[in-house]
Every structure is written in C-alpha cells, then in structure tokens.
Amino acid sequence: MVQLSRLAASLLVPAGVLAAPAAESKLQRRFDGNGFNNWSEGGSNIKCVNGPGGSFTADWNSQGGFVCGKGWNGQGDRTITYSGTYNATGPGYLAIYGWTRNPLIEYYIVESHADLAPNEPWTSKGTFTIDEGTYEVFTATRVEKPSIEGTRTFEQYWSVRQEKRVGGTVTTGKHFQQWAQLGMNLGTYDSVIVAVEGYTAQGGSGSAGSAAIEIE
Questions:
Q1: Which of 104, 126, 152, 173 is deepest in the core (most CB within 10 A)?
Q2: Annotated catalytic residue: which of 24, 41, 106, 149?
Q3: Residue 21 lies in a domain
C-alpha cells in the first residue's frame, strides 16, 4: 500500500497557459517550450524556472503548495516520454497531471514521490502493471475546492507507481483503460502536463525538473 499525504487544494492549470496540441511530425511532437505552467499558494522560497524545449527546474524550501511543469492543451490517449530529476522531503511528487471536463476530473499518474499520506478519505481500487511498473489506483472526492471551472466538487483519479522513477514512458491510454474498468470514467480532455507538485504545510524542500519531454 502506498502511503499518501494530505494535499491542501487541487492545483490548477490556468487557461491559455499550455501549448497547442502537438502536430503530426516526429520533430513537432517534441515539446516546443511554450507550455510552461507555474502556480503556487503561499510560500516565499519556491522557484520554478522555464527552460528550453521540454526542460524546467523547481527548487523549494518552504511551506505552501505549488505545481510547475510543461504540457499541452487537450491530449487524450498519448504516449509521453520524459527524463528528469526528483529529490525531495515532505509531501510531493513527479507526475503526469491533467484535467477533463464533463465530468470534471483531476487526474495524476505519479512516477516518483516523497511523502504521500493524506488525512482525507482516499479509496484504494487495487493495482495493475503497465509500462514496466506496478501502479496502485486511488480515488478521492474534493468538496468545494478550486478547479479549472472555479470552486467545485469533483473526483480525483490517481495511479501511483510503486517502483519510483524519474524518466521513462507513460502510456496514458493504458491508465485510462484500467480506470474505466473500475468505473472511473473521464470526460473531454482539457490539459496534461509533466509536473512537479508539493504541499509543504509542515515544511519541506527539494529540487526537481525535466530535461526532455516528448509526446506521441
């Protein structure tokens, strides 16, 4: 069982921040550097920096929540290849992170993490093995919390990788298929990013980032 920790609020992907969907050629599928996302609530020592191509860095030593990363508008069943780093204490993770609408769902495919142990009603739905790893699936309900549609009540879907890694390939459609078999249905894809997120209510620190991101 993966130990999960409380996250103070759902983290947002502001409208208009992400790059347009990737074009058809292999070269154009490589991240063009325009979809940088940087959001925080509180904390005075959180630094997220956009880099060239699919690179970004995050450094923090503070209380407060943040998320930063790079991604695309839309995007459903895709293969995302990334490489990066992640070294942290306190609640936080490196994940493929996104939203859908109708229904409004916030979803996470967690590749690596520090502390994850929520004091809220998470429900384990079992495990499955894909992309050379085993993931445990969780659901949670956020009641009147911030979302891409304002303050709403919505579901969270989580796949948490048991063998932590900071680089590899994530086939999002395989997760979506497993979730659907559990009755966890997504809506219309709004956005997806390779993200670093942390919530350090008790204080935490770390450094993380991506060196490259590619989508197919």
A1: 104
A2: 106
A3: no
Range of the domain at 45: 26-215
Q: SS3 sequence, 157-181? A: EEEEECCCCCEEEEEHHHHHHHHHH
Model confidence, pTM: 0.84
Written as tens digits, the pLDDT of the chain (216 aa) is: 333 332 323 333 333 344 443 333 333 345 555 688 888 876 668 889 998 888 899 998 877 788 889 988 888 889 999 999 999 888 888 999 999 999 999 999 999 998 876 566 789 999 999 988 999 999 999 999 888 899 999 999 999 999 999 999 999 999 999 999 999 999 999 989 999 988 766 667 888 988 888 888
What is the CATH number for 51? 2.60.120.180
Q: Which residues pair with 100 in a beta bridge?
A: 105, 189
Catalytic residue among 149, 197, 214, 216: 197
Q: Please check whether residue 8 lies inside any domain of the structure.
A: no
Residue 24 is a catalytic residue: no
197 classed as catalytic: yes
Write the CA distances from 76 to 122, 177, 180, 191, integer angstroms: 25, 12, 14, 9
**Domain assignment present for 205:** yes
| Cα 195 from Cα 69, distance rounded (Å) | 4
Question: By C-alpha distance, which of 153, 163, 159 is closest to 172?
Answer: 159
For the chain, the domain total comes to 1
Q: What is the CA radius of gyration of the chain?
A: 16
